[in-house]
Write a structure and sequence with these properties.
Layout (H helix, E strand, L loop, with lengths): L1 E5 L10 H13 L4 E8 L9 E6 L2 E10 L10 H14 L3 E4 L10 H6 L4 E4 L32 H8 L11 H25 L2 E4 L2 H11 L6 E3 L21 E5 L8 H8 L7 E5 L5 H11 L9 E4 L7 H4 L6 E4 L9 H9 L3 E4 L4 H4 L6 E4 L4 H13 L1 H10 L12 H18 L4
Parallel strand pairs: 1-2, 1-5, 2-4, 5-6, 6-7, 7-8, 9-10, 9-12, 10-11, 12-13, 13-14
Antiparallel strand pairs: 3-4
Helix pairs in contact: 1-14, 4-5, 7-12, 12-13
């Protein structure tokens, strides 16, 4: 088959979970199929919507078509992007389009595929289709609430007032006018996205929690939803050998943004006794990373000296650069993550995970079986669970060895087998359309 993957970023330009997974899937599919990728970059020195062709820097079999979105990234539907994508569809004649994310690209590019009778598969990595900001985390809170409160469901005016108020004027007399404008904008966006939803043939959900949210809250029919956890290149997580001579070390892998709860992790680390270490991996995000570093520097005593800021790493080197250098991984997200790659990767490498009792995180980590759960958004609860591992590093090792509890052998799904399952989904769609 000729497969056309669509993702809003591709490594190494963008290196978060959905991008890393898509790259891994593309490389596995390339063993049996011709694989192309449609993705974006943001280069202010290039013409907007300019299209370039590259190859995957780690696998030249994968062709990568990169459109420039330096100024248009915050919209949702772009005729120019749709036109460029339609042109590629005509040139490449793919058998199937598989979407990983449309944020910063164009929601409406599903329609050119639909018009050409090309099946469309959509992997749900977050809530972006039914939440304009993607994570059901609000930007503004009521007095007395924690910053970045969790949203209990999409409503047009609530989205406008809680998440788009940053675009309002500062005049109280104009508040309702601004609220009405952004309520209308959100409403148009949501009506459009529901049409996009209807143009997709099948949705893949890597967590049952996520599947239920899209079925119950967004109206995707049960027969268009498939639960399928992510696949992994398991060989990349093999051979962990913890570096000797270090005190118990916690690791964090991810972006330095509020939704990830890194600030809660730093706060919790400051409550620990003993002399553990905390290593934080991720791309420097300028002022946000600097703000987190100031939080760490303000911790009492010598605690701040035991917080280390690590550089970004290649996923292929995750054991050498990350898992050999920590004893437990902490996933402190405040949003309802669905199926975090880092949880799977850590469990495959034999590293225990501490995470929140919320969303898909609690689906893959079971308390006192292969990791520990803390009360969602409670740094003191997180600190108590972290302290248990500091006090009993042998137990931490036992938890890590339990691995992935959804399989009999403790292994996460293999990427080669996962790609074959994806292939079967493609084949089923094509057979239904009578094209194979």
């Amino acid at each position: 088959m000729k497969v056309f993957q669509v993702i809003h970023g591709y490594p190494m330009r963008y290196n978060a979970g959905s991008e890393v997974y898509t790259q891994g899937l593309c490389q596995a599919l390339a063993d049996r199929h011709e694989v192309h990728v449609f993705t974006r970059q943001e280069n202010a020195f290039l013409p907007e919507y300019e299209l370039q062709r590259e190859t995957d820097p780690a696998d030249p079999r994968v062709a990568v078509h990169v459109i420039n979105m330096a100024r248009a990234r915050d919209g949702y539907s772009h005729r120019e992007v749709d036109g460029a994508f339609a042109g590629l569809l005509d040139d490449l004649q793919p058998d199937v389009v598989h979407i990983g994310h449309l944020n910063h690209l164009s929601t409406s590019l599903v329609f050119p595929a639909r018009q050409r009778s090309i099946p469309v598969v959509f992997t749900l990595h977050d809530y972006w289709l039914m939440c304009p900001r993607g994570q059901f985390i609000q930007m503004y809170e009521d007095e007395g609430q924690q910053p970045w409160p969790v949203c209990d469901g999409q409503e047009d005016r609530k989205c406008a007032v809680r998440c788009y108020r940053r675009y309002f004027g500062n005049d109280d007399d104009e508040f309702e006018r601004d609220a009405a404008y952004w309520t209308g904008w959100v409403g148009r966006r949501m009506a459009h996205v529901r049409r996009v939803r209807n143009a997709v043939d099948v949705f893949l959900a890597p967590a049952r929690y996520l599947l239920g949210r899209f079925r119950d809250d967004f109206g995707i029919p049960e027969d268009k939803l498939v639960y399928l956890d992510y696949g992994f290149h398991r060989e990349r997580m093999a051979g962990r050998a913890r570096n000797a001579g270090e005190s118990f070390t916690f690791g964090y892998i991810g972006t330095h943004i509020p939704a990830k709860g890194v600030n809660h992790l730093i706060q919790a680390f400051g409550e620990l006794t003993g002399r553990p270490r905390l290593r934080i991996w991720g791309r420097d995000r300028g002022v946000e990373t600097a703000g987190l570093k100031r939080m760490a520097e303000a911790l009492d005593g010598d605690v701040s000296d035991r917080v280390e800021w690590m550089t970004e790493y290649r996923n292929q080197d995750i054991v050498r650069d990350v898992f050999n250098r920590c004893d437990a991984i902490v996933v402190p997200s405040i949003w309802a993550e669905n199926s975090p790659l880092v949880i799977h990767e850590a469990l495959q490498a034999g590293v225990p995970v501490i995470t929140a009792d919320y969303g898909g995180m609690a689906e893959y980590v079971r308390h006192e079986q292969n990791g520990l759960l803390f009360n969602h958004r409670d740094p003191s609860s997180l600190a108590r669970q972290m302290q248990r591992l500091v006090a009993s590093p042998e137990w931490a090792g036992q938890l890590g060895r339990r691995g992935y509890l959804q399989s009999d052998d403790g292994n996460v799904p293999d990427m080669t087998e996962h790609a074959l399952e994806i292939e079967r989904i493609y084949t089923d769609l094509l057979s239904r359309r009578g094209t194979i």
